[in-house]
Every structure is written in C-alpha cells, then in structure tokens.
Amino acid sequence: MIRLQHMLLTGLLLGGSGLAWAAGGETPGITSAELFRIIGVVAALLGIGWLVVSHWVLRDRLPRTFYHWAMLLGLFALPALALMGAVEFVFEETKTVASCNSCHVMEPFVRDLQDPHSATLAARHYRNKWIPENQCYACHTTYGLHGSFEAKRDGLRHWLRYVTRSWDEPIQYSGSYPNINCLNCHGETDAFQRVPSHGALMADLQADRVACTSCHGPPHPTPPERTRLLSAAPVHSSREMP
Amino acid sequence: MNLFFSMESGKLTRRELLQRLSALAGGLILTGPISGCEGFWQREPAIPVDSWHKGVCRFCGTGCGIMIGVRDGKVVDVKGDEYAHNRGRLCIKGILNREILYVRDRALYPMIRRNGRLERASWEEAMALVAERFREAIDRYGPDSVAFYGSGQLFTEESYTANKLFKAGIGTNNVDGNPRLCMASAAAGYISVFGKDEPMGCYEDIDHATCFFITGSNTADCHPIVWERVLDRKRSRPETVIIVVDPRRTRTARHADYHLAIRPGTDVALYNAMIYEFIRNGFIDQDMVENYLTFREGNAERTFEDLKRHVARYTPERVAPVCGVDARQIEEVAYLFAASEATMSIWTMGLNQQAQGTAANRLINAMHLLTGHIGRPGATPFSLTGQPNAGGGVRDTGALAHALPNGRVVANPQHRAEMEDLWGVPRGRISPKPGYHAVAMFEAMARGDLKCVLIMGSNPAQSLPHAERYREAMQRTFLVVADAIYPTETTQFADVFLPSAMWVEKGGVYSQSERRYHLVPKLVDPPGEARSDLEILVELADRLGYGELIKARTPEEVWDEWRQISAHSPYNFAGITYERLKKERGILWPAPTEDHPGTCRRYVPGEDPMAKGTGRFDFYGRPDGRAVVYLEHQRPPSDPRSDEYPLTLVTGRVYEHWHTLTITGKLEELKDITTDFLVVHPRDAHRYGIRDGEPVLVESRRGRAVLRARVSTEITPGVVFAPFHSPEALVNRVVNNTVDPISKEPAFKESAVRIRPASSAA
User: Fold this and answer.
1) For B340-475, where are the alpha helices, taking DSSP H only?
2) How close is the nearest chain A Cα to the Cα of B202, in Å?
3) Which residues pair with B520 in a beta bridge?
4) Which residues of B are catalytic?
5) Is the pLDDT of residue B449 over 70?
6) Calpha distance B182→B637 (Å, rounded)
7) Cα separation of A136 and B312, whole Å?
8) Buried b (16+ CB within 10 A) or exposed e, B310-331
9) Binning pLDDT at 50, 70 and 90, where does residue B6 land?
10) Is A96 left (phi over 0), alpha (psi -120 to 50) or beta?
C-alpha cells in the first residue's frame, strides 16, 4: 500500500517535471506568460491523470484517507492551480504588444511603434530599447496594484467596445495621461531636472493638468497619420521583429 | 438592506443571495458609464471641460493649432491640435494660453490723463477726446502729423482696417509697427530677390530636408515646435546634417553637427565665402544661372562673371578672421550645404536685426538660388516670423510706412492708383510720400513733428532700441495706447488708455511663418469694459468722419473685403473664406478659389496657381520672371568696438517668456524664470572683474543697464548676451538704434558695450 502511494506521488512529480520540460522545449529563457501557461497545462493534465488513476483504477486499493487527500488534490488543488496558471497566463499575455495588436484598431499604433524611421515617442522608446518588452503595457499602466487594475479595466472596456463594434474613429485617449508613467524613469534624471520649464510646471505635471506629451509628443501617430498608416502594408507580430 | 432579504421571512436562501449579487455586479458594469460612475469605469480628465474649440496660439510665429477648452464661460484648458501642423504639440507658452486671459493687471476701463495721472473715464469721454485731438492735429498740421504704430499681434482685420483708415482715410502713410523691429529685413530681402514678400516654402519642407542651415535663429527656444519638427527629421533620418551659425552656443547649437560661433554682424562675409566655395567646387546650378537668375549690385546690372570676381575677395582664409571662425569649417559647411540632396535654411532675428540685415537676407536667398536648393521638397530659404501675425497682418496688408496691400509700395504711382480704385477713394487720396518707419516715427515724436500717435498691441517704450531717447519722445506727444494689459512701460506715457480684448475674447485671422492663414474664434467675453481693437478702430473712423470708408465692421466683413482685394494681386487668397477657416486648420496662400487646397511651394509651376508656364520656376513677382542675386560687400560694424566699448552685446529671448513680459511676466508658473541676466564668457568675466550671479553694469554710447551676471562658456569671448524681456533691467536702453539702410530695421544685435561690476559704479 505504502509503495503504491509512493509510486503515485513519484509519478506526480515526474509527470510534472517531465511535462514542464517538454512544454519548456528548446527555449532556454521563457517569458512569465509561457511559464504560467506551462504551469496551467501541467496542472490540468496532471489533475486529469491523477483523477483517472486514483478514482477509477486504484480506488479500492488505496487507503480511505489517502483517497480523500487524492480527491482533494485532483478535484480542487490541481484545478485551482490550472485556473491560476490560465488567469496569470492571460494576465501576462495581454501585456504583450502582439496582444494589443490583435485588435484591428491598434494596427496603426503598432505599425508606427515598429517603424524604424518613425519619430513618435512610442517608436523611439521601442527601437532604442528604452523599454525592452511589453512596450504598450509599460506606458499605459500606472505603477502598483491600482495601476494594474486600471489597465485591466481599460482593457476589458476596450475589448467590450471592440467586440460590440461600439467605438468611434478616430479613437482617442480618454482622460489625462498619468505623467507618473514618464516621471518614473525620467523624473530623477539630470536632463529632466535642469530644464527650467519642468520646474515651472511641476505642480501641473504632478496633477496631470499638463501632459508631458504636450511638448514631447506626439506619442503615437495623429489621427490623420493613422488613416494613412491603415492603408499601408500589413503589420508584423512583435515577436517577429528584431 | 431590503434588497438582500426577502420581505416575508427576513431570510435569504443561498440561491437568492447569489442571484442578487449577480444582478448587482451586472448592474454596476452596465450602469457604470451612464450613472456617474464614469470615473470608476473610464479615465477622466484632470481639468473638466464643457466644450472644445479649434483655435491658434497667442504667441510666436510658429502659429500652432490649439484646442481650447471652455467651461462656464471661461477658458480652462488648452491642448495641441492633432490635426494642425504642430501634430498636437505645444511649448510652455502654448500651454499657458489657458491662463493668460486671467492674469492680474488686465485692463478693464478707459483712462484719460488728468493732472499727470491716468484716471478712469467712460468710452464716450475717451473716444471723444482721441477724435478731437486727432482731428485738431490733422486740420492744423496736416495728415502727416498723426500716426499709427501697430503690432504683429493684432488680427489681420485690425491691421488692415488701421492701414486703410490712415492711408485712404486720413491720408498719411504714417502706419508702421513692431514688425519693423523684427521682420523688415526678411521682407526687404524677399521683395528685392523675388519681387514679392513672404517665404516660398513651407513647414512640410522640414520633413524632406537633408541639411538644415540655421543661421541667426535660436529655433529651439524661440520657435520650439518648428524645432521639434527639425529634430523629428533628424530622428527619422539621423544622417541629416544640422548647421547652426550663432555667436551663442544656444540650445539649438548644442544639437548641431556644425556650430559656427560667428562674430555678430559678419554674416555677409561668411555667406560670400560660402558662395565662393560653391563656385570653386562646381556646385553652381547652371540652369538656374542661365534661365532663372539676374545679377545686381545695388541698382546696377551685373553678371555671373561679376559675381565670381566679387566673391573671389571673400575666400574662406580671408573671411575666417573677420567672422572669428575656422576657414576649414567654412569650407566643410559650404560643401555640406551645396552637396546635400535638399538644403533648408532657417533664420530669424539674428540675421534680420543687424545693420546689413537686408544684405544678409539677400545672400541667403542667393545661396539657394545659385545651388538650385530651392522650390523642391526640403530645399528652400525659409525665414521664421517672430509674432503670431506679423506676416499676414502687417506685411501682407502692407501696414508699414512704405507699403500698400499685397506687396504694393507707396512710391509706385500705379500701385497707389490700384489701391485707390479698390478702396473706392478718389485718385490722389493716398499720399505719394512714404511715412515714418518705426525708429523714424519716434524720432519725429522727439522733434515734435508728430502730434498724435495711436499705439495698439505693442510696448515700444521697452522694445525700441535706445529706449530712453524714445521714452522722452513719447512724453512730448499726444499718445493713445490700446492694450489688454495695464500698466505697461508704454502706458506711462499715454494720454489716453483704451482697454482692449485679448486672443479669444475677440475673433480674427492670424498668419504664421509658412503663409498659413488661420482663425482665432471668439469664445469668451473680454473683462470689464474692454473692446476689440477692431471696434476701437471702427469707432475712431466714425468719429473722424471716415465711417463711409470703413464699411466693414465685423471681423468677417473685413475679411471678406480683404480676401476679395487680394484677388487683384499674386497673393490671391480669395478662396480662403471664413467658412473654410472655421472648418480647416488654416490654408497657405495663394488659394484663389474655394476648392483650392492652398500652396506649399510658391513660384513652382504646377504647385503655385499663380505660376505660369512649364519651367522649373516662374518668379512672377519680377517683371522678367527671374529672381535677383545681389552682390553684397561686408561693411564695417555699425557700432564699432573700441578700447572704451570693447564688447558686443546681442539680445534675444528665453524659451518661457514672451517679448516685454506684459503677459508672461504675470504668470504664476513663470515667476522663477528670471530674465534680467547677462551672459558673459569666463575670459571676459575674469578680465572685467565680473562674478557669476552678481550685478553687472552694461554701458554703451546710448545708455546703461544693470543685469545679473551669468558666467558661461555658451557665448563667444568678446560677446555678451541679454534677453530683452525684463522691464526692470530694460536692456534696450543700451542697444544700438542704427537701422539697416534698406529695411530700416534696427541693429539690435550689434551694440558695442563695456561691462563692470555694478558695485564699482556706485
């Protein structure tokens, strides 16, 4: 009996690590989205296997207590882990440029972002690797839990608008852009601090009554420029870009 | 709480609880956007706005499109217009448009000087007095005893009306204004070279240029949004070359690939040397020389061979010590200018405000004409204007002492006759005698020849060179000052003060550097009893008995009259109607018909509706269709340095402030941005015992001023710099009032001075 339980637990461990290795494949460094996807998939597959083996195959041969624990693991713990993996995967995956670009309305923005000759703020931050990854998310999410919540809420609203086709072109940034997203990186630099205008407008900048992009924009192509970009060649996924 | 419990039992089953929680969650999501939870569901602006309106910035000649947010009858926010040429960008002054109407010291009611003090009066009293004094002067001393001194900050409708009232009504050409102080040499340059004023290129050329030759312009600080567009070109195409010619290592110069720290007032020598290099290296466009150019020296005809001989005296080696730059650098810069695919020159006050301003302007145009860097995308000689409406309001309407509308001149009898017919006044009404240009106008006041002067939207008591002399002159004259701000330096000398509306408190058309006419809408009411300058001019016309002449009484009526008059000239913008201006982000003239999209590049057949033929160019402003290349010699300095006055003072601006601080000086945000400083090179600071941050006395042959020393290597040794903004420091007391012989623009950038610690002067 004890050996049976040991075998099952060993199988769980081996299966887990084996699946993880398989899912990881040849990619040496994996993104957090991929890691969560692997965790989710592994937990789901293990959960199913675990349930099949412990309920239908070995039910009568397992001690009652172990069976109860096995059910708890198979019915709740592993599905919970699978769910967490899935949620985290979606959470992480929707931070990518490719995810933003999956909505048609975002194409001109992403096309400009990846244009090596564009002079927009977004394109310059992208090609100079000032922001190495998740470039849309990095500038459109304020730091901290509140920021993440806002970003996900905005994303949900945008998605609802998109699937219900209830948006107006040209799309516009609603509200005032949170300058803290710029100041997090630039605020402490000498280049920022030695500009007298920044000092003069500091209170307004901190309260978002003046956007950094007022002077340093445009962050993205303007509406007329976007119309031109939409008629250009199809955009590549961010993963294909150098 | 009833929502969560069934009424009968006071208990709730698990199913009911879940149902209600679901309903609540669904309700929150669905009703959020329509029930005051927008802030939860969607990001909200930091400044709530009722409505947004398209308009134009109040400040510089870049002429940025802005969106103006109004709430409860007040301007509360502005943002850059994404659909305008500035692509949504604004500088700090542009942003602060939202505050300027509400600064302290807004003028609220008319005032009349009684017993030496300006005291509150009614509009009736004030206007009656103004009309009485003007009428008395005209009757007793003739029409030339009165004058109008305007501004590149009035609307076109206002400058046009003032010009018409004085020239076709009163019968004097004494109409001039502050554009004489900043743009006159650029205008004289364009007119003498192309026959017509205003640049032939446009901002779009910036996106195509592969070499920028920026001379006498601190674009980064003074036309920040033009500069951003230049930087965008560099960002998109990093191999684009930026050459800056400036005695100061300005913010513009710090971004340059080549910086020529030239000695002030030696531009003519430098450009001659560059033309010498173009010829030596075979960069002359023979097609241009043979088919599109003529050559002149003064009024005498010359040839290309004469030009060769002329510039042979200006080899880089000979010019280098004159300009204080390296001969090798001149050669390199000349090569880059000529060899680039498309070169764009950009200049402004640095070039214009010198005793050879017109000559320097002519040579810049010549450099482009000779190398063929003209009339193609990116290839153009492009002068920037300083004010929001010096071009359209003053240069195009001919509101200058020598000029008549649409490039006509007073001295030409045919031009006078044309305008007399168009204005419907008898032949001979317009005086054949050109009026007083700005400096001459104040000289005439000093002599007592001018009895009454109306000053609108300008502050000459601070902005004129040799200011003290003209402040005394103003005291001797019956001076009527209309301004949105009270007090200013000039109102100290006013006998009558009239409060005027500012920016969107009135409506009208502005222009900007690239010939774009665009509309400022009236959005809010002016404070107190203030009225628009147009209303003041119309009332003055009525009271002086010229009501019949000034039939157009609203901005739109004036504009309609004006655009129809333009149809009788190569400026033709009859197609730029108010309707279009309300809808579009401005239009570049010529635009002869209402379906014409406007003109980016003038004189180019196919692009410019006024250009005829199929050749590369039709310089239709000239009788022979050919542009003129002038042979110009470098003259000695107008205010020579000596042992007594060993340094050269140049004046300029800072990024945050505007002109004489009447507006920006009152903005809370800008109170710590000082403007009363003098930049001194460490070598000169050491020589004259100046310490950083301490008061320094600047003296010239004309006057003295005390400024705070800022010791910095950003300036060439032998040169000192001060912004002209501060009314307390009033550096214009020191500044040279010599004028360019052709444009009559003062040489603000060439004043011989000496400096010493202010403490030693006590």
Assistant:
1) 349-352, 357-371, 413-423, 438-447, 460-463, 467-475
2) 19
3) B508
4) 93, 182-183, 349, 386-387
5) yes
6) 19
7) 59
8) bbeebbbeebbebbbbebebbb
9) very low
10) beta
Q: Which helix (H) or strand (E) holds B636?
A: none
Which one-letter DSSP state was computed for residue B388?
T
Compute φ and ψ for A4, nearest 5 degrees: -60, -45
**B407, B196 contact by CB (below 8 A):** yes
Report DSSP letters for B314-368, one per residue.
--HHHHHHHHTS-HHHHHHHHHHHHHSSSEEEEE-HHHHSSTTHHHHHHHHHHHH
Residue B191's DSSP bridge partners are none
* In the predicted structure, residue B621 carries a pLDDT above the cut 50: yes
Contact call for A217 and B237, based on CB within 8 A: no
* φ, ψ for residue B65, nearest 5 deg: -75, 135
Residue A90's SS3 state is: helix
How far is the C-alpha of B92 from the C-alpha of B81, rounded, in Å?
A: 15
B508 contact partners, CB below 8 Å, separation of at least 6: B155, B156, B157, B158, B519, B520, B532, B534, B555, B559
From B392, B391, B415, B386, select the one nearest B558 (Cα to Cα).
B392
pTM of the model: 0.91
* SS3 at position B419: helix
Phi first, then psi: what are they for B209, rounded to 5°? -70, 145
User: Strand ranges (DSSP E) for B57-172?
Assistant: 65-71, 74-80, 111-114, 117-120, 146-150
Residue B285 parent element (H or E): none
What are the Cα distances from residue B308, in Å, to A151, B336, B366? 68, 20, 13
As given in the structure block, the two tokens for residue B274 are: 């560059």
CA dist., res. B747 & res. B359, Å (int): 13
Residue of B nearest to A209 (CA): B46
Cα–Cα distance measured from residue B619 to residue B605, given in angstroms and rounded to the nearest whole number: 10
| d(C-alpha A208, C-alpha B725), whole Å | 30
- Closest by CA to B155, choosing from B404, B348, B397, is B397
How does pLDDT run across B546-557, given as a tens digit for each residue? 999 999 999 999
Is A117 at the interface with chain B, CB within 8 A? yes
Q: What ipTM score was computed for the predicted complex, to two decimals? A: 0.90
| A218: nearest CB among B88, B91, B95 | B88
Task: Report the residue of B67, B87, B227, B251 to disrupt the A interface, i.e. the one with the largest count of A CBs within 10 Å.
Answer: B87
Task: Give the DSSP H or E segment for B700.
Answer: strand B695-700
Closest CA to B708 of B700, B699, B696: B696
Alpha carbon separation from A215 to A205, B81, B86 (Å, rounded): 12, 12, 10
**Hey, is the C-beta of A197 within 8 angstroms of any chain B C-beta?**
yes
- Please work out, in degrees rounded to the nearest 5, the angle formed at the alpha carbon of residue B633 by the alpha carbons of B253 and B248: 15
Which strands, in side-by-side order, build the sheet including B496-499?
Answer: B117-120, B111-114, B496-499, B478-483, B452-456, B146-150, B175-177
Closest Cα in chain B to A118: B236
Q: Which of B708, B726, B682, B600 is nearest to B204 (CA)?
A: B600
Residues of chain A with pLDDT under 50: 26, 234-242
